[in-house]
Design a protein that fits this description.
By secondary structure, the chain is α+β, with helices and mostly antiparallel strands. About 35% of the residues lie in helices and about 15% in strands. Strands 2-1-5-3-4 form a 5-stranded mixed beta sheet. The chain has a two-stranded antiparallel sheet with strand order 6-7. The radius of gyration is 20 Å and the shape is elongated. The model has no long low-confidence stretch (mean pLDDT about 95).
Length: about 240
């Protein structure tokens, strides 16, 4: 859409008791993002509109919403990319409970991080010397490849397995588990593999690849999950052997 035009923006309004799209007419601006559009509506049309954002530069991930059916960081999504017909549809992230309008409850997302053992398991106390890590080892490279997740839940919302199976831990939690499994400073190998191999873990993934396709940080959660599958099967065979 060209600068100076007017677009139609359909925004999801409501909460757990019921929701529906409400349309607004929004003026186009140069270099306008979808987050700019949401902020304009809240400032100039309806101050009760609820949503989340913080940094506005793609570092925090808190502004993730569903734009024209696709989960995105709205601060990095320019209107000209998604409003080619002069209309945008903005909704909350899929598979998470809606608190109000575009704001979702992130608790289920982070609870699955806990269930996946996505916390650091220290080997040493603060009084002991830090263990040396060699950056060029295979394990360190695998950890580094998965470590830049900022918990935006875009991959979680994009995942059809999450949508169909509420018990599935999801790509973000399993990606975190994989990064810790490859961290030489983490001592939680057994706990991580047990969590990853349990019901709702990595073996529930159907490898459709939506997590990798839509990750704004260009991570590859599907590869991390594949690594967990191999590692958990190898651990199970070793226990039986």
């Amino acid at each position: 859409m060209s600068t100076g035009g007017v677009m139609t923006v359909a925004v999801w309004r409501g909460g757990p008791e019921g929701s529906a799209f409400q349309e607004f007419r929004v003026p186009g601006q140069k270099s306008q993002t979808v987050l700019d559009v949401v902020i304009w509506i809240q400032q100039y049309r309806d101050p009760t509109l609820s949503y989340r954002f913080a940094c506005r530069v793609g570092m925090c991930g808190s502004c993730a919403m569903t734009v024209n059916g696709v989960p995105r960081w709205t601060c990095r999504t320019h209107v000209k990319r998604v409003a080619k017909t002069g209309r945008i549809e903005i909704a909350p992230l899929r598979s998470l409970p809606v608190i109000k309008d575009l704001a979702v409850d992130m608790d289920p997302f982070f609870e699955k991080w806990v269930a996946a053992e996505g916390r650091f398991h220290p080997q040493r106390t603060r009084d002991q010397p830090v263990r040396e890590t060699k950056p060029q080892t295979r394990r360190r490279r695998q950890a580094d490849a998965a470590i830049e997740c900022i918990n935006c839940a875009v991959c979680y919302a994009a995942c059809d397995t999450v949508a169909a199976s509420p018990d599935y831990l999801g790509p973000a939690a399993l990606n975190r588990a994989w990064s810790l499994l490859n961290d030489d400073k983490d001592s939680g190998t057994e706990a991580i593999l047990a969590a990853a191999g349990a019901k709702g873990g990595c073996h529930s993934c159907h490898a459709m690849g939506s997590c990798t396709r839509f990750c704004p940080n260009e991570l590859d959660p599907m590869a991390s999950i594949a690594g967990l599958k191999r590692a958990s099967i190898a651990a199970a065979l070793k226990r039986k052997g």
